[in-house]
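My hope is that you will study the record closing this message with an eye to the fold:
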Amino acid sequence: MADSENQPKKTDKPAPAREIGNANLFADDIIFSNTEKILFEEDLERNSTTSRDGLMDGNPKDRYSPNKKLNQGGMKAIWEVDDHRTARKVAMALIQDSKIASEDDIDSFLYEARLTANLQHPNIIPIYDIALDENGNPYFTMKALKGETLGDIIKQLRNGNAEYIGRYTRTRLLAIFLKVCNAIDYAHTKGVIHLDLKPSNISVGDFGDVHVLDWGLSTLITHLNEYDGEPVSWQSMDDVELENGQTLTHYLEGSAKRREHKNVVGGTPGYMSPEQAQGVPSDIDFQTDVYMLGSLLYEILTYHCPIEGTKIKEVLQKTVRGDFSPPGMRAPELKIPAPLSAIALKAMSTEPTDRYPNVASLITDIHKYQDGFATTAENPTFITHALLLVKRHKLAVSLIAATAAVIAVVLVQSFNSIKQSERVALNALEALQEKNTYIASTAQKVAPDYLSLMEEQEKNYQFAEAEQSLDTSLAFDPELEAAWLQKGRLLLSQLDFSNAWKILSGAHGHAVQKDPPAMRLAKKYMELGELTDAALPQLVKDFVAYNVPEGLPRLFYHLNQQAFDPDTRLPALAEALKILNPEVEELYFKWQATGSGGWIIDMGNNPELDDISPLCGLKIRILNASNIGEPDLNLLTEEGMVELRLAGTPLNHLFDQDQLNGLQSLDISKTRIRNITSMIKLSKLRSLDISGIEGLTISPQLIWNRDLKMLTVSEAFRTDQTIRSLARRGVIIIYTDD
């Protein structure tokens, strides 16, 4: 840990032993919540308690000798001490002498130590030991860090320190930021939210080591589920002057006094998220840390805190309104790249749903910027991709620019002699043609890559992205025959038969890879005129017969995205299902409209039904697909589905689709899905049926589904630790005999 300017020197006396008012405090068992038992199961004993004897360590003075005080703040003081057993210097945290420690203070102190100890990551400070001295005073030891905080570094950069400006370039600062992101991403996988990310809580060592410090406000996401009180009011702080780095921390108490019945609302004004500023613990989520990472990136880019003010109330109001300048306007002299500014602003969106869905997505966007590609935060256009392509091929662009400069000079000199100018102009023109040829060949090399990307996106039913990638491929190489073939097939699936025939036949003026069946299909329907729902089944048969069945998902998506008459369209889709699934002898297919403009579809008990492409693009709210074959669920492209039944299907893995993240009810009973770890992504899930699955593993992460109200599971899991934890939380558990 870096020394502050006002820290005591080595001559400081060692901290005297504290006297605790309740001498029997540690004679009682220290009880952790059920969530912590699961998360920390490798470090807690098999029973749910840890006695005082397990923490007592005699007299720490026999093992540790103090050197100097490193830091102090809040409840803790940090000392550098010599560890005689290991012959090394370590840092010791203990409650400050001036503080009167309540049971809650000591409980929080031990909670922070144990939680940090279980976050074992290269960028999180390691905890060595947790113990009580002979007087019952708690302390813990950790790695003694050498270096300075990121806040100190940014202060030097803001003051124009030439040494720091040369050492901490934007590239190195981004490398530090990515290490912080990796630490927080790891913590989130353990269900831990930091809640107080800021430059002064980031330690930067002399050898590239970076550590995220001060996990005192951090909490498990499941603790926030238990809060059902009124929002915390900061009105008592309306006229409080804001001190640099001041942290707001309130403990909201329920009927019990233990840690698991409290919820933390806090953070540092200027860095804390709008939901923290509004004081509602139940609104805090992983996106809260994403906002703070955005604030951290903002200060790395501008050397200024995102939101500043003289009073706490002023800063909190600005935070809730999102009242701050974009990085480029805050520090125009630093020439901040637009992609980095866009990443910071997206992470700091006032609405959590507008931020990055997780820290991994934020890291991916930073890597895209570093590699010279467009970021998702920019909402890139074709022009953006093209400009970045030019930047990635600087040699070719430099050659063209140099050639243009040479031509300009030569043309000026040519006025001295007509004959000489003619010769120079011809030579320059030849050189320019050679360079243009080089640029064209470079673009031609890239075009097949975009075509391959288009084909992959089309297979994943990302139709809009596939169309954009195809247009990019043709822009870079207008003579790419395979790309024109894909363009013709794409238009065919979008029922633009006239233009599809022009391209597939070569009448558009470019060579095209031949596909005679597809060309005949386009000509046939071009002559038939407008397509009706009654003609749709025959068109499906023709797509199969003319060897272009891969275009059917886009065809149905195109049709189902437009307004249609359900009395004709849905029977046509049922006929299409029969055609594409010839093994189905008698199709069961029912539908019903919902008030929100969607559909309730029941196609259960069709065991031979595998191809569900006619449903592509259809706005389905409730889908019963129980006891059918092996459908490709990626064909369910539309968001808004709230209930999905897959009971009895032979599926062996849980799909990963963002459009299904709004599911409230899911039935995967009697399937082959044995790993349900990814259930945490279904954050709105209220009802889940996982009964009758052979070899099923109950993931402890199931407790992170905060909205889960009902769970159906096999009788064999009645004593499972996770199931019992859910029951104690109030989830209704239904046991079946399978």
User: Anything to note?
Assistant: The chain is about 40% helix and 15% strand. The domain at 25-143 is CATH 3.30.200.20 (Phosphorylase Kinase; domain 1).
